[in-house]
Amino acid sequence: MGAQARKRKDDPRNLQGRVALVTGASRGAGRAIAGVLGEHGATVYVTGRSVRGQPTTDNLPGTVEESAEEVTRRGGQGIAVRCDHANPQDVESLFVRIRDEQGRLDILVNKAWGGYEGERLMPTYFWQAPLRLWDAMFERGLKAHLLATYFAIPLMIESTASASRTDRKST
């Protein structure tokens, strides 16, 4: 099925008018998910620590700007935001911005992860990885998911309640 068929207004996969946030979207699965959401017409905030013109996490390729450009190329609106998802102030500021700019959030994809930085991770058994690495991943990785969810849920509940009121008024 081509991209044009997916953009029909009656297609349940049409995400026109929907606002999504994909954390950790500068590369990998996060970037791919953001691109597909864009292909279906969503406005997608793509976040991460890697931004154009600065060193990226572990010098890996990919930035939030490149991911936002891909979302837009594929038919959505990509918005790049630098955010360290383990930093509560960064995350809260992100959600204030989304509320101010969009007034809603419909989709949250928690893909940000951290704690592995600087480690040369070779395929190994988990019990052979040093405990300090696990501590760091729990602190940064799981905390990133907790913080995004903590700040997203109130906005998503408001968005759902607002949509329900609008639907009732139009019938």
What is the strand and helix layout of this fold?
Elements: H1 3-6, E1 19-22, H2 28-39, E2 43-48, H3 64-73, E3 77-82, H4 88-102, E4 107-109, H5 131-170
Parallel strand pairs: 1-2, 1-4, 2-3
Describe this structure in words.
Residues 1-6 have low confidence and may be disordered. The protein is built from five helices and four strands; from the N terminus they run H-E-H-E-H-E-H-E-H. Strands 3-2-1-4 form a four-stranded parallel β-sheet, with helices on both faces. Strand 2, helix 3 (64-73) and strand 3 form a beta-alpha-beta unit. It has helices spanning 3-6, 28-39, 64-73, 88-102, 131-170; strands spanning 19-22, 43-48, 77-82, 107-109. 47% of the residues lie in helices and 11% in strands. It is of the alpha/beta class.
Large-scale geometry:
globular
Helical residues, percent: 40-55%
Q: Order of SSEs, N→C?
A: HEHEHEHEH
Strand order of the biggest β-sheet: 3-2-1-4
Tell me how many strands there are: 4
Uncertain stretches of 5 or more adjacent residues = 1-6
SSE-based structural type = alpha/beta
- Our estimate of the beta-strand percent is 5-15%
Quick check: average pLDDT?
Answer: 86
Largest sheet: 4 strands, parallel
Q: Termini separation (Å)?
A: 33 Å
Count of DSSP helices? 5
- Radius of gyration from the alpha-carbon trace, in angstroms: 17 Å
